[in-house]
Specification:
9% helix; 1096 residues; five-stranded mixed beta sheet; mainly beta; 54 strands; Immunoglobulin-like; globular
């Protein structure tokens, strides 16, 4: 008896093999070059000369083996890397056989069409029909069914005595990642040569945050995301792809939705309904060159959900109710602490204390709240919890001819104020339709719209120098409202935050409408295999209406002698006024592409396209103001005083024209080479500089497919790749090459003052694009049947032609300003990696854990800055946006003050910040300011994601962190100095220097203020936080059938649950850095969420 063994290369990846009219031996030989198992069998049992056909499109190794051996009466068993083939035993054939039937569903209860079902170890099998049903004859009771389908995890079911089955397959996350969205198309992940990070629908929808962008933090390698505020509808989420690479005006990535570039100022990502999103991909290297002049800061590709062929109409309903509160509330000094600190500030200046010990005692014990109050203004003005409601209803399905996805969503958020009239609301609707006209023509129509409405107190934004500055600066020794009443007392500047946040004082209302439409047509050219023509046309409309009404408001004085209250007008608003503003934007985009995709001799694949695109945009703004309203009853412009009216407006139009293309060659998924380009034209620049060419080149080598790697059975995939590309940045003020004129009223003609036009800016006829040269080298690997994966990238970008002003001046009498010039240079480089592990322990339990890490450091190479006496003060060689500050090295002691060898600034006193003499000249002056090495943009970000599934339960945890970052606290806020500026943080008083605490680590209070411009206010903003957690329960199939639903899941989730950082004692979330107000901003929100998802 002869036998033979074929040593084959295997990969856990699915296999594509299409051959017709070949022998079993030839099929085995072809599989040998693509696989890794060893066939072990007796030559007498297998007819290797039998003619067969094999058609496998991205199928499992089992499916391919079964096609090769079909009809030979064989069984097989996989042991390690060996496939043992045997003839069917006669005794096995004598076991009673029966017919079995069943259906195969996904977790949503939808039928899976074309799923493979085979009796394990045999070639007896079938596939599911259009309803997901199947039937197999001659199955023994001791048999095992093996189910498989592309994009889903294989499953084994023991037959036993059962004859009818309802089987649910779970999605295989790794398999779903096999197709990656790239610019103007998709590519198989195994042939992608670019650094692209992707995230799917399930991970996008898991966060209860109303801001989709904020929910992505910690999930995408190479993407730095921070939520700067908790203001509903305006979270201020910042996104940097691989860090900040320019000190020019535009640092935002480009957003592309379903192939059309759109602007984030319209909330295209942050305000999307997460239930509408299928996937998000981020182009981080040369792959972004296909978007040319707008891609220098990276590209974010958003793909929305569409219908599915063969999917019966499926209705999905989701509802979430969240309890929201700021992650922290700034801890201000209470009345007694403030009074004590104020006394020490007086004492250090040689003044008498402001408060007596008896008064401080009364502030502390609350015995006389009318005269000696203890007001916590934060907790007085805002609620402990607010509410958020989110709901979504969608319909999805499709036939061979028509596929559809339609959805509607609603969001209602309460604001933190104790007033009841402020809110943020949003309505989203979407319809994506696809139709197959005939075998060669397909069309689609996408429509979406959203309405956003927000009402805030009269001062508008709650961040920055408006609402929360008033809350922070009011003293705790001032009464908020009289005991036993709702009457507000006069506070700082005669106003009162309780009044400022009330409807009586007015409101700021913003309504926004956004409409997106897109029509596509695809024509397959029948006489040229692989050739198709694609056309797309999109129309977007955006409108915003802003209305701010400031009404007179009142506080009350109380006469303790008579017990009477007298109403007085708040002095900050003497009469009602109204500001209205309306903005409109229209965008038209059209493109056509010729696509070609074909594979020759099963191993040579060419994928190419060439396209043309043109876009136009119109924008306008109209603004009006009137004051001195006779009454606040009708807040409309005609009812204001015409003598106070002002108006403003603008209108603009821009256009772009582009040619773009890509060509990729792939040899047997082993060697890949890709070239792409974009030739962009923009009217933002003069004719001579209007067009730019932006190329990108990348290559990849899948080493694991080489013959010399065939014996490494634990290695599934190993690929190295490299890329270089040029991208541009044309998001600058338009027409800077032209003379700018402005309307002036100061001219004199014939002895009278007249209005006229005068030149405002010198033109720059040579202005052009910023250019980014991007370099990337990466490695991708996967081990142990996909259980372990790892990716690593090194990257560098060099930005040239950055627009900035020269260090020069124009005489003031000319009235001109300097133009921007392309003179700046900056660099950014770093590393990033991802590592993941997943395993199904048994049918009931599986788990996954993954992590990502990014380090990105930038520096200014050249900026035309003022000459500095010291080299270390130059911006060059330091991070973009780094500031000049005195280095704080401690607190001046009494002995320091007596020592003339200790350098100090004029007016310095014991207890002031001690400054480092940077240049060693024995003096402290402006030459001792040093350039900082950190900014409010983290150089290190990372995330850890854990998932566990046990029976019907699932648990997910997301941890997010950042490092090498600072938060600069507002200096005029933390130190009230002479007492006029307002309260101070409790943190300051806990170890403050006083004559009785000379070892204090925080400086004394009082003037002259010596903390300004020092590193003392630079706080380490590193953190490690539980960003998101969710636990869910999915009803079993039997229960769902009884209640008549396809799927039902309930869950409890939360976001921003806790944080380990250096700012807890201040009550400031370190992620809220970058606002410029260091604590005046409302901290990001913590959400505790209850949700349910039901499918029919």
């Amino acid at each position: 008896m002869a036998s033979f063994c074929l040593n084959l290369t295997v990969s856990s990846q699915n296999i594509t093999l299409k051959m017709s009219n070949i022998t079993v031996k030839q099929a085995m030989d072809e599989l040998k070059s693509r696989s890794g198992y060893s066939f072990v069998f007796s030559s007498a049992d297998v007819d290797t000369g039998k003619k067969i056909s094999v058609s496998s499109e991205n199928q499992s190794i089992n499916a391919v083996i079964e096609q090769i051996l079909r009809g030979q009466g064989l069984t097989y068993e996989i042991q390690g890397k060996n496939i043992i083939l045997k003839k069917v035993n006669v005794s096995d054939q004598q076991v009673p056989k029966k017919n079995i039937t069943g259906s195969v569903l996904d977790v949503d209860g939808d039928a899976i069409i074309g799923a493979n079902i085979v009796v394990k170890g045999t070639t007896n099998g079938t596939i599911t029909d259009l309803n997901g049903h199947f039937s197999i004859s001659d199955v023994s009771s001791n048999a095992v069914l093996v189910l498989s389908y592309i994009g889903y995890k294989d499953k084994e079911i023991h037959v036993n005595n059962q004859s009818d089955f309802k089987i649910v397959l779970n999605e295989d996350t790794q398999a779903l990642e096999e197709v990656v969205v790239v610019g103007y198309g998709t590519q198989k992940k195994e042939v992608v040569t670019a650094a692209i990070t992707s995230i799917g629908a399930d991970d996008i929808a898991v966060s209860p945050s109303a801001d989709v962008a904020a929910g992505l933090a910690g999930r995408l390698s190479g993407v730095i995301i921070n939520t700067r505020s908790g203001e509903v509808g305006n979270e201020g989420t910042s996104i940097f792809v691989r860090g900040k690479s320019t000190y020019g005006s535009n640092t935002e990535p480009l957003y592309v939705v379903d192939g059309i570039a759109r602007t984030e100022e319209d909330g295209i990502l942050s305000r999307m309904d997460p239930n509408d999103i299928e996937s998000i991909s981020v182009l981080k290297d040369a792959s972004a060159a296909i978007y040319g002049s707008r891609a220098a800061n990276g590209v974010i590709l958003i793909t929305t959900k569409r219908g599915k062929t063969g999917l019966k109409p499926t209705i999905n309903v989701s509802y979430n109710h969240s309890f929201a509160q700021p992650t922290r509330i700034v801890k201000m000094a209470d009345a007694a602490t403030y009074a004590t600190a104020r006394n020490w500030a007086n004492i250090t200046k040689g003044l008498e204390p402001t408060y007596t010990e008896e008064e401080i005692r009364k502030f502390a014990d609350g015995s006389d709240p009318l005269n000696y109050p203890n007001t916590d203004w934060y907790r007085t003005v805002q609620k402990t919890w607010t509410h958020q409601d989110k709901a979504n209803l969608s319909l999805r399905g499709g036939s061979e001819r028509v596929q559809y996805f339609m959805s509607g969503g609603f969001l209602n958020q309460g604001t933190p104020f104790n007033n009841g009239f402020t809110y943020n609301r949003q309505i989203n609707v979407r319809s994506n339709l696809d139709a197959k006209v005939n075998d060669y023509i397909k069309i689609s129509l996408d429509l979406s719209a959203k309405k956003l409405g927000r009402v805030l107190p009269r001062d508008g934004s709650v961040n920055g120098g408006s609402m929360y500055s008033h809350v922070a600066l009011n003293l705790p020794t001032i009464l908020a409202k009289y005991p036993g009443t709702d009457l507000a007392a006069p506070a700082r500047d005669g106003d009162n935050p309780l009044v400022q946040t009330s409807g009586e004082a007015g409101e700021t209302k913003t309504d926004r409408w956004l409409f997106n439409s897109q029509a596509n047509i695809t024509i397959d050219i029948p006489w040229v295999k692989g050739l198709s023509l694609v056309g797309s046309f999109a129309y977007d409309f955006y409108q915003q209406k802003y209305k701010q009404f400031k009404n007179v408001a009142y506080v009350y004085n109380y006469d303790q002698a008579t017990g009477e209250y007298s109403k007085i007008i708040v002095p900050t608003i003497s009469s009602p006024s109204l500001t209205v503003e309306e903005k409109r934007t229209e965008n038209l985009t059209g493109n056509v592409r010729a696509n070609y995709h074909n594979t020759f001799n099963e191993v040579h694949t060419i994928d190419a396209f060439f396209g043309f695109e043109e876009s136009k945009a119109k924008s306008s703004m109209l603004k009006g103001y009137r004051g001195n309203f006779a009454s606040g009853v009708v807040p409309e412009l005609p009812f204001g005083d015409s003598n106070t009216q002002t108006n403003d407006g603008l209108w603009g139009e821009t256009a772009r024209i582009n040619y773009f293309g890509r060509a990729m060659y792939d040899y047997d998924n082993k060697y890949m080479l890709q070239f792409q380009f974009r030739y962009d034209g923009s009217q933002n620049f003069p004719k001579g500089n209007r067009y730019g060419f932006f190329p990108g080149v990348s290559a990849g080598w899948t080493i694991s497919r080489e013959a010399f790697m065939s014996d490494i059975n634990w290695l599934d995939n190993l690929k190295i790749r490299a890329s270089w590309g040029q991208m541009g940045n044309d998001v600058v003020d338009a027409y800077q090459y032209m003379v700018l004129y402005g309307l002036t009223a100061g001219s004199v003609f014939n002895g009278a003052q007249v209005s006229g036009l005068s030149q405002k800016r010198a033109p720059n006829p040579n202005i052009t694009w910023e250019v980014s040269n991007s370099y990337d080298v990466g490695i991708e690997s996967r081990f142990f049947g996909g259980q372990l994966s790892f990716e690593f990238d090194w990257f560098k970008s060099r930005r040239t032609n950055i627009l900035s002003k020269r260090n020069a001046s124009i005489p003031a009498f000319t009235g001109l300003s300097l133009p921007d010039e392309n003179i700046g240079i900056a660099e950014n480089q770093g590393i990033e990696f991802m590592i993941g592990h997943q395993k199904s322990v048994n049918k009931d339990f599986s788990y996954s854990i993954s992590g990502n890490f990014t380090y990105a450091k930038n520096n200014v190479v050249f900026s035309d800055e003022a000459p500095m006496a010291e080299e270390y003060q130059k911006a060059e060689g330091h991070p973009i946006g780094s500031s000049l500050r005195y280095k704080a090295i401690g607190i001046y002691s009494e002995s320091d003050m007596a020592d003339s060898n200790v350098p100090k600034r004029p007016g310095t006193m014991a207890g002031d910040i001690k400054i480092w003499d940077a240049n060693g000249d024995g003096e402290i002056n402006s030459l001792d300011r040093i350039r900082q090495d950190l900014t409010d943009i983290p150089q290190i970000v990372y995330g850890v994601n854990l998932g566990i599934t046990w029976k019907q339960f699932d648990l997910s945890l997301l941890f997010q962190g950042q490092a090498k970052v600072i938060n600069t606290i507002q200096e005029t806020w933390v130190d009230p100095s002479s007492g006029g500026a307002g309260n101070l943080m409790q943190w300051w008083t806990e170890d403050m220097w006083t004559p009785e605490n000379t070892d204090g680590t925080k400086p004394r209070l009082g003037t002259p203020n010596k903390i300004n411009g020092t590193t003392f206010t630079n706080i380490n903003a590193a953190f490690f936080k539980l960003k998101n957690a969710e636990i869910g329960y999915t009803l079993p199939v039997a229960v769902r059938e009884k209640i008549g639903v396809a799927n039902a899941r309930v869950y409890l989730s939360g976001t921003n649950l806790f944080s380990f950082d250096h700012m807890r004692g201040m009550g400031i979330d370190p992620e809220a850095t970058g606002s410029g107000y260091g604590g005046w901003a409302l901290n990001p929100q913590r959400l505790i969420n209850l949700g349910v998802n039901v499918s029919f």
